Amino acid sequence: MAAVTKSGLDKNNKYDRQLRLWGDHGQSALESSRVCLINATATGTEILKNLILPGIGSFTIVDDKKVEGDDVGNNFFLLRDSIGTPRGKIACELLSELNEDVVGDFVEESTSNLIENNPSFFTSFSIVIATNMDEKNLLKLGELLYKYNVPLLVCRCYGFIGYIRLVLKEHTVIESHPDNTLEDLRLDRPIPAFQQFCDSLDLCTMTKKDHSHTPWLVIVYKYLQQWKNTHNGAAPINYKEKTQLKELIKTGILRNEEGVPDQEENFDEAVKHVNTALAPTKVPSEILKLFDDPECLNLTPQSKAFWIMIRAVKQFVETDGQGALPLRGTIPDMTADSERYIKLQNIYRHQANQDCQSVSNSVQRLVEEQCQNPENISEKDIHTFCRNSAFLRVIRCRSLEEEYNPQTANTPLLGQHLEDEEESDIIFYVLLRAVDKFYEKFNHYPGFYTQQLESDVQELKVCLSKLIQEWSLPPVSKDDYVQEMCRYGASELHTIAAFIGGIAAQEAIKIMTGQFLPIDNTYIYNAMKQTSITVEL
Amino acid sequence: MKNSLSPNLYNNVSNCKVLVVGAGGIGCELLKNLVLTGFSDIQVIDLDTIDVSNLNRQFLFRKEHVGKSKSQVAKESALKFNPNVNIVAYHDSVMNPDYGADFFKQFKLVMNALDNRAARNHVNRMCLAADVPLVESGTAGYLGQVTVIKKGLTECYECRPKAAQKTFPGCTIRNTPSEPIHCVVWAKHLFNQLFGEEDPDQDVSPDTEDPELTAAAGESALEKETEGKEIERKSTRVWAMDTGYDAEKIFSKLFRDDIKYLLTMETLWKKRRPPEPLDYNNLSDESPSSTNDMRDQRIWSMKECADVFSKCLAKLKTDLAAQGDGGMLVWDKDDDKALDFVVSAANVRANIFGISQKSRFDIKSMAGNIIPAIATTNAIIAGLIVMEALKILDNKFDKCTAVYLNRKPNFRKKLLDAGRLDPPNPKCYVCSAKPEVTVVLNTQKITIKFLEDKILKSELGMVAPDVEIDNGLGTIIISSEEGETEQNNDKFLSKFNIINGSRLKCDDFLQNYNLNITIAHVEKLEDEKEFMVVGDMAELQAKLDENSKKKEGESSGATPGNTSSKGRIGSVNYHSNLYTKQILVIF
C-alpha cells in the first residue's frame, strides 16, 4: 500500500479509523478490488458510497435507464437538473467526488444485453452487486456468475422491507476474527523449550521477589506436573479435579511469619486460568472437515492458495505437528518480570516460527508439484495462515437456481418459519417472491397504480397461493401483509436504502478483504419492527 | 414516498422542524436521510472542524474542507443536492448557554449524533426540560445502537448506570505503573507539563504522598532528596524551559534521576519489580519486536525512542515558541510530533518498569481514545434513526424500539436486537420528580472547587450549577454568576459545616434541573477513590455489601459475569475504555 494517496493525503491518516478493524493487508485487498453495480438505484448508490469512502480500487455502474423524477426524490447521488440524462453516468460522476483514489466508470447498456452478448464482461469483477433486478434476468446473471465463482450480492428495498442475498460458489476466510478464543498454550503437550525453562526454575529456592513474579503459565505447569505425579500421569479433567488443582496451587503462595498467605498476584492469575489453560489441544472439527474437503485432497494447478496452504497444514498435523495445528505463538499478558516474560514469549514465538517453516516447506513442495508460480504464496501469507489455522472457514452458498427451483428449495425451513413462528420475517421473503410472480404476469408491481390497488391485492393473493403450492406447503393466510405489500407499490424509501446500503456494503467488504464471516445466505430487514433475520435459502 | 407514509405522517414530516446534534459520522448520514425522507426544516449543530481521518466515512466532506466547520460544510454539501430544504448550521457547542430550553422547545424532535457522554447527558436534560422527544444513537466499529427518549414515557439517557469513565489513581501513574495505559497517560501528562496547559493533577514526578508509603518512608525520601543536592522546587515547565528543552537533561531527569529517587521509596518495591533507570548515552539498540518494517506497527528500541523523543522535543519547542509568551500546545493524536512524543516517552517508561511496550499504532488509539469507525455502521444506524423518528412523528411511541446492531448475527441469527423501551426509572437522579443522590466523601478533604468541577460537572453532568446548603439559612456556596463565590473555591466542605447527613440543593438554570444531594461523610474510600455517588443510603449499603461479596467471589476463581446487552455499547462507545476493565457506578 502506497503511503500517500493520489489525492496527496497520508493514507494511514485518511484510513486510520478503519485500519483498526481490518489492518493494512485488508486495506490493500480492498484497494485492489473491482466492484460492479447493476442499476444506480438509491440502494445501489448508497452501497457504492459506503465502498468508495473506505477506498475500493474501482467501480463500474451498469444502467441503461435515464434519470426520472422519482429517482431524484430518493437518491442522493442524482440531481434534479439531471432528469432525462443517463442515470449511471450522473451517479458515477457524483459518486466519484467522494474519493479521488477510486476510479469510477459506467456502461449504458441493459444487463440482459450484456449477459446475452458479452458475458465475460461480468467475470472480471471482484464482486457484482445487483439492485432491483427482475427475476428472469437475475437468475441468468446468477447462473453466469456462479459458474465463474464471482460473488454476487443481490439487494432490494421494497417499502419498509430490505432484502440481501449472497450468492457464491466458494469463499475462503483466513482471518475470521472469532469472538472468544482460547489461548494456544499447549500445557497438555508442552513445547520442549518451555518444559526446559520451567524445569530450570525452582519456586522453593527463589527469592521472594522472583517468586511473586514468576509467570502464571510456569506456575500452572509446575503444579500440573505435581498433580500428574499423584494421579498416574493424568491431568485433571472435571470440575472437581480442577478445583483440587487450584487448591494445590494456592498452597504454593508464600506465607508471612504468622503463616498468613501473602498477596501474590501471579498465583491469583494462575488459579484463575486453570480452567481455560487446561483445555486439551486438538484440531477443531471445522478444520478436520476442511482437511477432508475434495478441494484439499485433490489439488490441481488451478487450486487456490488457501487450499494449497490447508493441505500443507494437514501434512504438518500428520507429521511434525504430531496431531496438532501449527502453534499460534502468542501468550497473554501476565504479571511477571520482563526478563522471564520475554523468554516465555520467545519460546512460543520460536516454536511457532518453526512450525510455520515446516508448513512453508510443504507449501513449496505442493506448489512445485502443481507447477504453480511460487510467488503466489508469500512467507507472510503462510505466517498469517498458520496463526489463524484454528479459525479457517469456507463458505459455500446455495445457488439461486437451487433456491428458485421448487424441487431443491429449502421448503422445510420455509414451512417451519411460516407455521411455527407467527411473527417470522420470512413472510416478507415469500411476499417478495410473490410480488415477482405478479410482475412477471402483469409487467407492473402490485399497488403501483393506486386505482388498481384492490384488484392487485386479490391478484397478489393468488400469486402467493401458487408459490406456496409449488413448495407443497400448507396454505397461509396473511391478508394484512398482502395488503401492506400492495400499499408499498414497489416504492424505494431512502432511509431503508440507507440501512441496506450499510449492511450490504459491509458484506461486500468482508468478501473483498477475505476477513470476517459473511452471511449465508439471505438477510431480511423489517423496518416497521426494526427486526431482521438471516436464513439459508 | 407518499405511498408508504400515511398522508398524515407525510404532512408531519414535511412541516416539522428538527435538530441534529453532531455533524460527524452519523450526522452526515442522518442529514442526507432526513433531506431525502422529506424533512425540510433542519438545524444542525457541531463545534468540530473537519480532519483528514474523517474522510473515510463523513461523505459530505472533501479534502479541501479539512480545517473548516463541520456543520457549515455539511449544510452546504447537503443543500447542493436539494436546495429547497431549509438548513440552519451552528458552529458551536450544544452545551453553550445560548441554547437553552427555549431553543430546544422550537423542535418537534431532536436527534443525537454525538461522540461523548457529557454532551449526551446535557442534550438529554435539555430535551427533558423542553419536553421534546430525543432519538439517541452511537456507533463503535461494527457495533451500534439507537434508542428513543420521551419524558415520562421512557427511560432517559441517565436512568441506567453507565460504566464509569476510567481514571487512574495519581500515584499509580506517578510511582507504580503496571499496565501500558499507565505509561501512556503519564506521557500525555508529561506533554501537558512541558508544553500544554499546566494542571496540578497531572504531575509526572514521583509522588511522596503515596498512601502506600508510611509517613516515615515518604519523609525519609524527602530528606534524602534535600540532603543530596539543593533541588529548587519549581514546575517541570519552568525547569525544562531553563534547560532550553535540552533532550539529554530532560531525559536524564525523567528516566534516570526520578527513577532513582523512586527506588529510595523502598516500601513500594517490596512486592513489585523495581524500576530500572536508563542512561541516555547507553541505550539498547535492540528492538523487541520481530521483523516488521512498518514504523507504525513495530516496537521501537530504547535508542530509537530516545532519538524520537529528542527530535520531538526540539520541534515542539519551536511550535511553542511560535505561540509567543504564555502560549501553549494542545495535545492532538493526529499531530505526528505530539503523538511521537507520547509514543517514545511512554515506551521508555514502560521499559523502565518492565511493562510490555506498544506500537505507535496502538498507542495512538490508547492515547487518543480512538474508536474504530466505518461508513457502513454509520449508514445502518442513521437509517434506523430515521425509522424511529418517523414513528415519533406518527405519535406511535408504543411502537418505538431500542435497537442494537451486533457485529454478526447472534446465536438466534439476529443481526439486530430490537427491544421495547423501558419506562423511566423512578429513582433516576435526572428525570424523576424529585431527583436525589447521596455523595460519599470526606468533608475535610474535598474542596468547594472539587465539588463543583469533579462532582457536579464531570460526574453529575451539570454545566453551571448554583448550590445552597439546605440548613434553613440558604447559605450559597457555589454561584453560577462570575465573581460571587470564587473565594470559597479552596475551602473544604467542613468549613461550611457540611457534615455527614448535610443536604445540598443544586440548581442548574440552563438545564432546568434541580438536584438534592445528601452528603455521607467517610474518612476513606477504597481504591483511592475521592468520592462515590449513590442513589440513596439503602443502595449504598447494598453496594458495600456487594463489594465485599465480590471480593470473596474473585478469590474463589469466579469469573465476572457478562454485561447485559443494554450495557454493551455503553462500555465501548460512550467511554472508550477499550483497554481497561469497566467499573459500574451504581446510582
From TrEMBL, chain A:
What species does this protein belong to?
Answer: Lottia gigantea
Alphabetical GO biological process terms: protein neddylation
Name under which the protein is recorded: NEDD8-activating enzyme E1 regulatory subunit
Q: Which residues form the THIF-type NAD/FAD binding fold domain?
A: 15-531
Its family? Belongs to the ubiquitin-activating E1 family. ULA1 subfamily.
Q: Which Pfam families match?
A: ThiF (PF00899)
Any single GO CC term annotated in Swiss-Prot or TrEMBL for this entry: cytoplasm
Keyword terms, alphabetized: Ubl conjugation pathway
A single Gene Ontology molecular function, please? Answer: NEDD8 activating enzyme activity
* Pathway(s) annotated for this protein in UniProt: Protein modification; protein neddylation
From TrEMBL, chain B:
Residue ranges annotated as compositionally biased, kind Basic and acidic residues, are 544-554
Record-level Gene Ontology MF annotations: ATP binding; metal ion binding; SUMO activating enzyme activity; transferase activity
Domain Ubiquitin-activating enzyme SCCH per the UniProt entry, residue ranges:
325-364
Kindly list the places in or outside the cell where this protein is found, as annotated in its UniProt entry. Answer: Nucleus
Where on this chain does Zn(2+) bind?
Answer: 156, 159, 428, 431
Question: What keywords are assigned to this protein?
Answer: ATP-binding, Metal-binding, Nucleotide-binding, Nucleus, Transferase, Ubl conjugation pathway, Zinc
- Note down the stretches annotated as region Disordered: 197-229, 544-568
GO BP annotations listed: protein sumoylation
**InterPro entries, per this entry?**
ThiF/MoeB/HesA (IPR045886), ThiF_NAD_FAD-bd (IPR000594), UAE_UbL_dom (IPR028077), Ub-E1_IAD_1 (IPR042449), Ub_act_enz_dom_a_sf (IPR023318), Uba2 (IPR030661), UBA_E1_SCCH (IPR019572), Ubiquitin-activating_enz (IPR035985)
Q: What is its main location?
A: nucleus
Give the compositionally biased regions (Acidic residues). 197-212
Instruction: Please tell me where ATP binds in this chain.
Output: 22-27, 46, 54-57, 70, 115-120
Biased region (Polar residues) positions are 556-566
Question: Can you name a GO cellular component term?
Answer: cytoplasm
Q: Which pathway does the database say it acts in?
A: Protein modification; protein sumoylation
Q: Which domain of life is it from?
A: Eukaryota
Where does the record place the THIF-type NAD/FAD binding fold domain? 8-428
Domain Ubiquitin/SUMO-activating enzyme ubiquitin-like span(s) in chain numbering: 439-526
The answer to keyword Membrane applying to this record is no
Positions of the catalytic residues: 171 (glycyl thioester intermediate)
Q: Which family does it belong to?
A: Belongs to the ubiquitin-activating E1 family.
Subunit (UniProt) = Heterodimer.
Q: What is this protein called?
A: SUMO-activating enzyme subunit
Source organism per entry reads: Lottia gigantea
